[in-house]
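Minutes, methods subgroup
Present: GH (chair), OT, SY

1. OT presented the first of two proteins processed in the latest run. Sequence and structure tokens recorded below as shown on screen.
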Amino acid sequence: MATVTVPGQVLAPTSSHVAGPGTHVYDNNILASIAGPIVTTPAPQKKGKSTISIPRSASQTPLPAVNAIVLARVIRVQPRQLVVSILPVAPGSSASSLMAYTTMTNDDLQHQAILRREDVRAFEKDKIVMNDMFRVGDIVRATVISLGDERSYYISTTGNEFGVVVARSAAGNAMVPASWKEMKDVVTGKGEPRKVAKPV
């Protein structure tokens, strides 16, 4: 019976294995990108490295629909928009289970989406500074507002229940909500600006 892994779990060092589908490399280790059974494929040559992968079932990648609530990881912050990667997890997932996604380095396996500045909140849209609302690695709860084009969906965080749900501080520590616009480092107590999602 195959061993089942969870996202973020270290599977093997890159010195002994090659990263296959469903995995990514971080700090010289191969980590799981999705939950599922671990499959190790022997190298075709005796001196080669085995490939470690996690097969993706059809049920793990449902296509987001308009009005669907999704969780996404911020992968790029620009002055007028964010680029995020929609995660293959339920919106009700716990913060601890989502923390591994904040340090992922490979988002090619997921659906990408755009969060435009005008879709961040419902008021004072012209005063929004994207870098004061989100940072790379943040996990955001949002709703899909458009299927967009073949490359990206469009999402919105205008509701109070939408915004950052999981984040790491500049020091690399977990953070907790302090208000609707700030999260605090659980170790240092230092605050950082965010568009914080109201707990649901």
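2. SY then presented the second protein from the same run.
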Amino acid sequence: MARSLLTASWAWGRGSRSTCRPNTDMVRAAKQPKRKKARKKTTRKRSTAARKRLTPRKEKRGLAGEELLLDLDTPELRPLAEQVRELGGAAIGCYREPFSGRPLLLAALPLEAVEATPFQRDLSPTHTKRLAQKIEESGSFLDPLIVVQGTEGKFWTPNGRHRLAAAKVLGLRQVTVLISPDESLAFRILALNTEKAHNLRDRSLEVIRMARVLATRNERVRESDYADQFESPALLTLGVVYEQERRFAGGAYHPFLRKVDRFSSRTLATSLRQREGWASRLIAIEWEVARIVEELRERGFRSPYLRNLVVARINPVRFHRAKKGVTKPPMEIGAALTRMAASARGFKTASVRERDLALVAAVAGDGED
């Protein structure tokens, strides 16, 4: 009897396990979304890796070896070669640039025949001395300066100010140069400038100086026509600010400007006048921010991120997230500056806590100034 009960119990258990299989399937189905999430995470990792991968272009571009060769008598370069000789230099050779095929003249020029473009960033004496020292140690001045036709019979270098200054420190008689007959290169080479890393102030000042030169050369040119050369409309506005306040904390305001500042379709001269008004309003806002920061210090706060915290708090578009493909600003810059100024005037320092500073410090990263 006992054995039959055990047998029946065992049989019932097997049957119960069999009948519970649908429940097991339900459990598996419930776990399925977790697997999908894991797959999505893997996909994101793969897409990130794909973005970082450098894939060579399949079809070849540019010129072949013999196509690069040119004679010094090439009509496009003959006037430049004559000008070089008149200035006391020497035309060494010429060739076509391998990407676009534009002609370039390799020459030697006296230092007094070359000057930096008027809109280029300010000279750094420290960087110049260090560069001259390294050239002295290596015993070689290898990199030719890129130059274009300038004013008063001289040549402009749009990205070689520090190498030119280092050559003067070293007492060189002449420097090697690559001369392009395309004068507009002086305004397009900013994005290729890697001689010395730009900080935000250097970039902004170089862009605004370039804009002012272009505005005088052609009164009808529109600001948007030079969007590629200017890189960012925020750099134009900050450039005007830096012209007036060299110690302006542009890094704190740059995220705000990137969201609301756009290139104008009006003439460059008109747009620059408008940006001068925006710059004055930004400087006035910074005065209020400086007052708030001082009050926070009096309350005992000690942090290099006090200004970042205050500017983030009064930023009217700080929570806006741009959608892909949408270029319209979340708020017009004039209205945004009005809101920002009002928020600065009504800022309550009592609302600031230590944990707020810790959060700002965690996301701030290295400053651009």
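Chair's summary of item 2: Residues 253 and 350 are 23 Å apart (CA to CA).
Next meeting: continue with the remaining queue.
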